[in-house]
Amino acid sequence: MNHPAIPQVAAFSKLGSVRQALGWGRVIHGESPTRPHEEPSVSTHAYIGVSGSAGKTTSLAATAVKLAEEGYTVDVCDLDLQANPTAIFGYLNHAGPTVADVISGKKKLRDVRVPARLELGYNDEGQPVYDMDVMRRIRIIPTSRKTMSPLAVEVVKDQSLVIALREAFIAEAEEHPEECADVRLIDCGGVDSPLHTLAALATTAETDFPAELASGLSGVITCAKPQWKELEGVPVTIAMLAGMSKTYNRPVELLSLIPTMIPTQGGAISQAEKDHDRKYAFRLASGYREMLAAAEDTYGPLLKAGVTPPVRRTNLADHAMTALTPLPLYRPADTRDVVADYSRVIEHQTRHGLFARRAAIAA
């Protein structure tokens, strides 16, 4: 179907409440939640878009937490000019080595990587207190605002730097494969910049990994509201990635579109909605079913993982960002519905080859 209106081509004070919300039960420090039977593959996904405030950082953080629950080791690589992921995962105003040091060749990934942590509050001496356990499977390749802006300038001056992160991933796979994360999630923020090229090319690193290190489907994920104005950025992103693929002779593609910030309406899902061929987990506000249908029909056939189930709008996402807390860990009783939306997103993406298990790849 052709749709001409759519552009074509608060930290917790009680640790138990967090772990109970995650379904981890009793976890003793130093132990790990049970891993799934199959080992995960190694894959890299960059969250890229040409517009801001589309929910990319919220989506990345939610995905990292949910994958960690499932037993994946996740690296969050922060290329956001505002350093939001670094702050959300426990390192506000980070002063140590950053991803910029990796890209400049001064440090290796293992020299800058730090464990994710959840700020719980402050002790009597006014020092922050962290839970280092609740996000044990998530690691951060951090950044800081003072290093990112100069890095963007350097990448423009020295085009060889656009492959530096890709080369760092490959080097780690060759030299220290045991340290490779199962999944790498790269946040690029919402501003079109040369760092987008660096991040996109990093998703092709697995094509040059050692043969014994299984690799899954890697590529770019984007988020957008389903309105025409917001979706204008999707064909721009597709064209941008096609240009990168041609210029650098590496296959870079947009894999998945997450419709975010969908308004809801009250009441139970009607029988007509249940009988409709397009079923959603919540009642969409008036007009949004048609918008989503248009987006699904337009971009679903173009993307390997298509258009995911939608994510409802909630002001709690803003509150979680303000509290510097990943959404699934922020007031779980209140955010469970939107967190369930993200679980459906991940399930959809997994069915289409993202975050695949090594056993599935071997088959």
Description:
The protein has 363 residues and is α/β, with parallel strands linked by helices. The protein is built from 15 helices and nine strands. It has helices at 15-22, 56-69, 84-88, 99-103, 109-112, 145-157, 164-175, 194-202, 228-231, 233-248, 271-275, 288-299, 316-322, 332-351, 358-362, and strands at residues 43-47, 74-78, 114-115, 118-122, 128-131, 138-141, 183-187, 219-224, 254-259. Strands 3-6-2-7-1-8-9 form a seven-stranded mixed beta sheet, with helices on both faces. Strands 4-5 form a two-stranded antiparallel sheet. The longest helix is centred in the C-terminal third of the chain and has 20 residues, at 332-351. The protein is globular, with a radius of gyration of 20 Å. The two termini are 35 Å apart.
Secondary structure topology:
Blueprint lengths: L14 H8 L20 E5 L8 H14 L4 E5 L5 H5 L10 H5 L5 H4 L1 E2 L2 E5 L5 E4 L6 E4 L3 H13 L6 H12 L7 E5 L6 H9 L16 E6 L3 H4 L1 H16 L5 E6 L11 H5 L12 H12 L16 H7 L9 H20 L6 H5 L1
Parallel strand pairs: 1-7, 1-8, 2-6, 2-7, 8-9
Antiparallel strand pairs: 3-6, 4-5
Helix pairs in contact: 2-14, 7-8
